[in-house]
Structures are given as C-alpha cells and as structure tokens.
Amino acid sequence: MGIDPSPALLAAWGLPDTPEGLERFSRTVVEAVGDLVAVVKPQSAFFERHGSRGIAVLETVLAELRRRGTVVVLDAKRGDIGSTTAAYADAYLDRSSPLSADAVTVTPYLGFGSLQPMIDKAAEHDAGLFVLARTSNPEGAGVQLAVAADGRTVGGTILDEVAALNRGAAPLGSLGVVLGATLTGLAADVAGLNGPVLAPGVGAQGADPAGLRRTFGTAATVVPSVSRGLLARGPGVADLREGARRLIDECAEALS
Ligand SMILES: O=c1ccn([C@@H]2O[C@H](COP(=O)(O)O)[C@@H](O)[C@H]2O)c(=O)[nH]1
C-alpha cells in the first residue's frame, strides 16, 4: 500500500495541506495497515513538496515503520550520473541514514551502469532496489518500448540486466523491477527475473487484481501496489484496514 498524501486526499480526509496534515495522514495509514500489508510504499514527492518540514515528516514515518518492522519501499525514482547516484545511495540505502528504506525505486534511464553505486550499497546494507522497466503510465511506452540495436525493447534490456544480477540468488535476488499493473502485454520475460516485481497501477489507474494474472501469469513474484484506490477509503482506520484486507485476498487469489 502506498502513502501518497496528495493535496486532494488531504482535503478529502479533512486535513490541512501542511506538514501537520501529512503527519496525521501518514500515521493513520501506518496504524491501519502497518501490520497487515507486505510492503508500505511512501511516495517521496508528496513529502518533498512541503520542503524540509515535509522531509522531516517522511523521516518520522520511516522511523515508525522501521520500529514496527514493516517492510518499506521508498518511491523516490532516483537516478543520475554515477557519482551523484552514490550520494542517493547514501541517503536511501545506508541504514544509518534517517531516510533509509528497505528498498528504493530507481530509474535506469541514465544508463543501467549508472545505478552501480545503488546496487553496491543495497548489497552492503541488505537492502533492495526496484528498477523502472515498464512503468504504468501510458507515456512510458515511447521510451520503454523503443527497440534497441539488438532487437530487444529498452524495457526488456532493463529486465535482462536485473535478471543477470539476480542469477543464482536464493530464494530471490534483492533487485526487482517496476512493471505497471496497467500493462496488457509485457513484451518481456519476467519468469527468469529471480526477483520481485513491483506493480503499481491497481485502483485509480484502472488495473484490477484479476488483470494481474493476465499480465504477469503465476511465475513472477508480484507485489501489486495501490495508493489512491485504498486511501480514498480513509480517514477511518477500520475502513482502510478492511479495504486493504479485501484487496490482499483478491490479489492473492489472482496470483496464486
Ligand atoms: O510505474 C509506476 C511507478 C510508480 N508509480 C507510483 O505508484 C503510485 C500509484 O498511485 P495510485 O494512486 O495507486 O495510482 C504513485 O505513487 C506513483 O508515483 C506508478 O504509479 N507507476
């Protein structure tokens, strides 16, 4: 489940669009599902838009999730030239950083090799990465389905790079990919990935649990991700929890 405290959701929950509103929102989500869902995925952008006070709230949310032992994927989609990527790795993957998470989303579109500092830091800190391969938004296709010189799609080459790094890891490698749940065909092989697939797009973007099987089959380890589709049920803790519980059952059935 995502924590996406957008202005629209804050207003719908009767909360101010301020760091205090963010904090109330996030604490409610953590209280509702922190012990229920496999992964919580805060969206960094909704904290960053409040400046340093928003980042401070994100730090407290990450600390609380860490305290509870909830697995956290920070959706920050970072990526840059290698030397700057090393600084992002320190920020998000070094366990001593207040912004560290169990995994972070990263973009490989400055070249897969530019992610090496993140890959190294993740290995050092027993953390993981989710590398954007085929995103859930329709605009992604123009870049990600472009065909490389060897005939593979760009998104497919990302999958292959991640699969190569995960080869031999048991039970799964710590490097995953992002593949939108909204995709109708993958044009790439996920069965050989040997790592998790983060699949955002269920709910507000139109994907549903039944479609997960059509897109991913049953061979991949898929972590479907929902933000607005569940958050719209708030601010009641019981309603959020009930919605999450139902969706977990539907996704499990679709993917088993
Ligand atoms: O391909 C991608 C990668 C990331 N996201 C992020 O997931 C959530 C989706 O929110 P919903 O409200 O469930 O649509 C959001 O934080 C995105 O930035 C994605 O949608 N697609």
From TrEMBL:
It comes from the Bacteria. Signal peptide: none annotated. This is Orotidine-5'-phosphate decarboxylase. Its EC number is 4.1.1.23. It is an enzyme of class 4 (lyase). Pfam families: OMPdecase. Belongs to the OMP decarboxylase family. Type 2 subfamily. Keywords: Decarboxylase, Lyase, Pyrimidine biosynthesis. InterPro entries: Aldolase_TIM (IPR013785), OMPdecase_AS (IPR018089), OMPdecase_type-2 (IPR011995), OMPdeCOase_dom (IPR001754), RibuloseP-bd_barrel (IPR011060). Pathway: Pyrimidine metabolism; UMP biosynthesis via de novo pathway; UMP from orotate: step 2/2. It catalyses: orotidine 5'-phosphate + H(+) = UMP + CO2. It comes from Actinocorallia longicatena. Residues 2-243 form the Orotidine 5'-phosphate decarboxylase domain.
